[in-house]
Design brief:
Two copies of one chain form a homodimer. By secondary structure, the first copy, chain A, is of the alpha/beta class. Chain A has two domains: 241 residues, Aldehyde Dehydrogenase, Chain A, domain 1 (3-Layer(aba) Sandwich); 144 residues, Aldehyde Dehydrogenase, Chain A, domain 2 (3-Layer(aba) Sandwich). In chain A, 44% of the residues lie in helices and 21% in strands. Chain A is built from 15 helices and 16 strands. In chain A, the strands form four sheets. Chain A has a seven-stranded parallel β-sheet. In chain A, helix 3 packs antiparallel against helix 7 and helix 10 packs across helix 11. The longest helix of chain A is centred in the first third of the chain and has 17 residues. The first copy, chain A, starts with a helix and ends with a strand. In chain A, 54% of the residues are buried. The interface between A and B is large, with 67 and 67 residues. Strand 13 of chain A pairs parallel with strand 16 of chain B, so a sheet runs across the interface. Chains A, B: GO terms for molecular function: glutamate-5-semialdehyde dehydrogenase activity; NADP binding.
């Protein structure tokens, strides 16, 4: 039996205990996990230093180094994150509906944990702590497979967290880290159907596609966002400008950032020069289709490839469209089903856009940047699903559960 | 572009129209589909005859021939099935919750169609009609890939149904059949992520495993059931006998049939001779563990492999267990997460069993045979999910939907 299979077996066994843990037990574990993180801060920061040194040797970019690095403040934030999870309502056990059949059978639909969740992710060590906390609160054991860049930090963090879990009396195997960060072991994990109930990849498009292609374990695809903002004829152009600037520039590297701007031809002449100069002031490279170029001469032409691309950078492509229908078709053709927005004053067009755009989150007169578990009011999130199966959009604790039918009879046969 | 890709593209395009069809339009299509089935009955029955002749030449079993064969009565039943779907409530458009955030954003969670559903299935031509009707009612276009045994029947049925869809004014591409029944095309379909949103296999364990192993499109795994009935100490043994006989013998070839019987050691001496002779009277081959053999001498010994097997036949394996805990561990180890039952008079043991058994449907004092969309009151079913992602247990119209967040703002930025 491979080391990963052993981990899987232990996780499955532990899941039968964790599934039936009370909210009080789980909250107690979360608090102790936070305490241990602080107690072991010296070890964690030392191990993090090793990861940083290795990363510097490899010539890692400054932005990546920042994502990788921990300090006392960040550890405090992680512990605080766990305390926030304590405050969230426990979804487990809720019977969302119960009905009686003509034969007297009483059938209830109950929220129960998934069992064993696998998470494959990159870089940021705070994901290790967030994911561990959320999975535990929803009654799931978790097997984490982080990237090699953060392996020393992750080992230290998981060791501390497991100490907390153990002290609370819940099974230590509720949380396990895959220490072998080779691609072979990641592939093995994607096919560990015997033990893993659900796999959630978190990271760049490359990682997510690799998981989708190779996994036989059911996957929740997360995070790729080629998000559009469509500015309708007659829109409040001041509002449109604020929203486009916010959606594009407030945090361009995240999946809910705007990547494309569609402008109705009736407002193109008025809106394009303003928005393009405002975007450029923020350091955004602007690309455009032919009609954009006709209005603002010094814009680079967008290539065919641009329309399907998630830049995650200070780049935007702009297209002029004839009407809301063209905007909707374009979005349904090139979008990734993440977040799409219309800026409009038209009731009809707002309804059409809401109904016809096929995406996880569809906005009227607001920034796409709100697609986020905290902004939606879920308290925390494990990722943003861009598939249609199981969960779509920001996933909180509820999305880490499945259901079970509980049936009370008194001798019924069919 | 391959023929399947073309079908996929057409299905995707049609899905954007069908997604927004009204309930009235969809019901109209369902009624017309039923009418066309009857109108074209001669052609359908002729084509079915070809399939039957081919099957006879291949030496197909009588049971299989029966599943394959159509007659006027069966066609009437299929049309009636479509009329039943008309009566079901349309899940699409329901906003299951809507809330307001502190910044004034109003966020609603709305049920919407999946888009394009792929179904890979075997033999029975009535599945063609059921699946087409259910997918359409839930606003999804569907690509069906049936088995080669029923290809002539399926072509004729789909032709009739499409005529009905066309007459109702909905896109004809709402329903398409893959006429090339080769394995290559099935494999291509499993990887058609560009166009297919969800894949549902329906058939034997071999088919389902092939889809799970090969698909990159999100899959809902259905139907494999290694179901247990556990007879507790102090159970009403008359009730236990009725339930075991019903669960095992009323229809042994279906997935909710009992495959294993677990008997508490305190009732084994009293219960085993009775139940074994009752099972044998019904023509069931009984296998047992050592303790069973000690009580009823002429039983065949169950091998290690028996405990994980879905017989789908007049065979049962019986094991004596020390208590409810051992029954639960055995079920969680060998079960397929389908349907599990306890027969008991003990409040504590009933609660323990309901809470700790990890399966789609957990019964107290009732037959496992009730795990079925109609028996649960869903009106119809597209299959029984044995995975934890998205849907678990019988899947009705609701399970053929996904959600979309619709967000009303007035200029919010983050």
């Amino acid at each position: 039996m491979s080391e990963l299979s052993l981990k899987g077996e232990r996780s499955k066994e532990a899941s039968y205990i964790l599934m039936n843990a009370t909210t009080t037990q789980k909250n107690d574990a979360l608090i102790k996990m936070g305490e241990k993180l602080i107690e072991h801060k010296n070890n964690i920061l030392n191990e993090n230093k090793k990861d940083l040194e290795n990363a510097i040797l490899k010539g890692t970019s400054k932005a990546m180094l920042d994502r990788l690095s921990l300090d006392e403040k960040r550890l405090e934030d992680m512990a605080d994150g766990l305390r926030q999870i304590v405050k969230l309502a426990d979804p487990i056990g809720e019977v969302t509906s119960m009905w009686k059949r003509p034969n007297g059978l009483q059938i209830g639909k109950q929220k129960v944990p998934m069992g064993v969740i696998g998470i494959i992710y990159e870089a940021r060590p705070n994901v290790t702590c967030d994911a561990a906390g959320l999975c535990l609160k929803a009654g799931n054991t978790v097997i984490l497979r982080g990237g090699s860049e953060a392996i020393n930090s992750n080992v230290a963090i998981v060791k501390a967290l497991c100490e907390g879990i153990k002290e609370s009396g819940l099974p230590e195997a509720s949380l396990q880290l895959v220490e072998d960060t080779s691609r072979e072991v990641a592939n093995e994990m994607m096919r560990l159907n015997e033990y893993i109930d659900v796999l959630i990849p978190r990271g760049g498009a490359g990682l997510i596609q690799a998981v989708v292609k190779n996994a036989t374990v059911p996957v929740i695809e997360t995070g790729v966002g080629n998000c559009h903002v469509y500015v309708d004829a007659g829109a409040d152009l001041e509002m449109a400008k604020n929203i486009v600037i916010n959606a594009k520039t407030s945090r361009p590297a995240v999946c809910n950032a705007e990547e494309k701007l569609l402008v109705n031809k009736n407002v193109a002449e008025e809106f394009l020069p303003t928005i393009i100069s405002a975007l450029r002031e923020k350091g955004v490279e602007v690309r455009g289709d032919e009609e954009v170029l006709n209005i603002v001469k010094d814009v680079n032409e967008a290539s065919g490839e641009d329309w399907g691309k998630e830049y995650l950078d200070f780049i935007i492509s702009i297209k002029v469209v004839a009407n809301v229908d063209e905007a909707i078709s374009h979005i349904n053709k090139y979008g990734t089903g993440h977040s799409e927005a219309i800026i409009t004053k038209s009731y009809d067009n707002s309804q059409k856009f809401l109904q016809r755009v096929d995406a996880a989150a569809v906005y009227v007169n607001a920034s796409t940047r709100f697609t986020d578990g905290c902004e939606f009011g879920f308290g925390a999130e494990i990722g943003i699903s861009t598939q249609k199966l199981h969960a779509r959009g920001p996933m909180g604790l509820n999305e880490l559960t499945t259901t079970k039918y509980i049936i009370y009879g008194n001798g019924q046969v069919r």
